[in-house]
Amino acid sequence: MQKILVLDFGGQYSKLIARRVRELGVYSEILSFKTPIETIKENNYHGIIFSGGPSSVYEDNAPTVDKKIFELSVPIFGICYGAQLMAQLLGGEVAKSTVKEYGNTQIELTKNLSPILKKIKSPNTVWMSHTDYISKVPEGFIITSTTKDCPVASMGHLTKNFFALQFHPEVTNTKHGQAMIKAFLYDICKCSKTWKTASFTTTAIDEIKEKVGDKKVLCALSGGVDSSVAAILVSKAIGDNLTCVFVDHGLLRKNEADDIERIFSKELGLNLICVDAKKRFLSKLKGVTDPEKKRKIIGREFIKVFEIEAKKLKGIDYLVQGTIYPDIIESGAGPSALIKSHHNVGGLPKNHQFKEIIEPLRNLFKDEVRNVGRGLKIPDMIIDRQPFPGPGLGVRIIGKITDKKIALLQEADHIFTEEIRLAGLHSKINQYFAVLTDMRSVGVMGDARTYFYTVGLRAVVTSDFMTATWAEIPNEVLARVSTRIVNEVEGVNRVVYDITNKPPATIEWL
Ligand code: XMP
Hints:
Strand order of the largest sheet: 2-1-3-4-9-8-7-5-6
Strand content: 15-25%
Bound molecules: xanthosine-5'-monophosphate
Structural class: alpha/beta
């Protein structure tokens, strides 16, 4: 299959570049700038894109790449930092400006026609975010556009097929960015449309059949999008030889365990074992208030329960995991401050008993996983699901976790999610849920005094969940949710709406 490499210099948009390439029908993968040149050569890429990055080419230890990359006879497309690096490595000059050019900017095309910009008119809106700029292009390059603050907004070497843009074609603010990437892929790299999730599905099913044969496979199913699609894909390949294990830790949303059982076992016909481990989890969590301790306990117990179940099922060779491409890229990222120890259902015990792990979705982005799922006729209820943290309501109950508090939060959350759907807001908000605070306050109901809990409502708009903005839900919807929660959920007399972005807050409260 034809492949495009996105060489990552630490830019925040590297993943977005790779997604844009795939949206245009060409497979792409991201590798660190540290990848040895031999590996890049062996992979026979049709084209290479240098990503942006936060550094300046003049900084000590600035990310760079072996100059031999320019001798591979592969077209190269530099974006922002990648453009500056290309200029510097090939003998041009990069200068430091005193002003940062940031945001929407107009480019003017020069009379030197660029094959990358051939479909766009001058002037045109692009998205800039840089301080350094290319002050002199390397030998053989032509300047193909400028802005009022930037003498080289784009440049190209027409015979060697090296092109560079100071701006970001991958963000939607660059009006014709996708056309520029398309020109690089199809006109310069001579790619053809070879990446489609439908063909992915057929190939993946064949590969799983080939690998597994008539052996038995286990899958830890959380009911989330990734593990569900992975499970169904594998079941299409090997049928009854797949067994799924779903662990109910007692911290699920209202009706969740029943829904999972109904959908996967009855509707989709999978072999499903639902393990009721509520007592085990809740006894371990008794009296625990520290958020990280809660997360660790739930993570550890989850693996223990899963191991016990796996041991009961004799003769299992393979384990399926719903790992997706962003998980792979992120686990390779450098050390960053630990904010929360995330754990996913399906996290693997260290000394596992399996011959091999199968991760059929390891090369896919989330939206591609959803497409595969739709193609496999998995119900929308599963495909359109929001992320739900592995530790579940355990990280949505502040303070001690009790049966009563879980029941109360399940009800409040159910009302909130129901009203959001009824208001037609489900597809406009990326994640929404209720939180149970540990705070009680005085209220009056009928003529009686109450001293009940406060429920927090959280709803955010985000594309990557790394940053998020609180959602502007219409007042009448909030009013309805508040009235219903206080009227219908015994033990709650106050509802608050969280109007904090991430950062400084996180999406979950714990
Ligand atoms: P935060 O709270 O870190 O959440 O802003 C970002 C996203 O991650 C989800 N989340 C988790 N997902 N295991 C998961 O699989 C976890 O332990 C976990 N903790 C948070 C959260 O719901 C949000 O979508």
